[in-house]
User: What shape does this take?
Amino acid sequence: TRVGMIIGINPDKISAYEALHAASNQGVRDLLDKYHVHNFSIYIQKVDERHYYLFAYYEYTGSNYKQDMDTLAREPRNIAWLSKTDAMQIPFAGEKTWTKMQEVFHNP
Assistant: This one.
């Protein structure tokens, strides 16, 4: 299963967000592996003078996505991680976190 997501980011938090995701910071990478989330990438794009957006992509390789995501959401280290990153992000109207995107095309 391929997943694409999007969310805004506060421009003044970009450097801190990048530092959290630096290669030297293991963060919750082991938890992503544990719950079958692979090839996780995050991209940033400046849309205009005031708006930046993050696009994330990952591949889920397990057999029970809902159960794995629910269990990951209860992991204490993941909760702590998200409390840091969520404070830097700007969800879309009506959302609390990342918005999942609809896949339009895939070339295997």
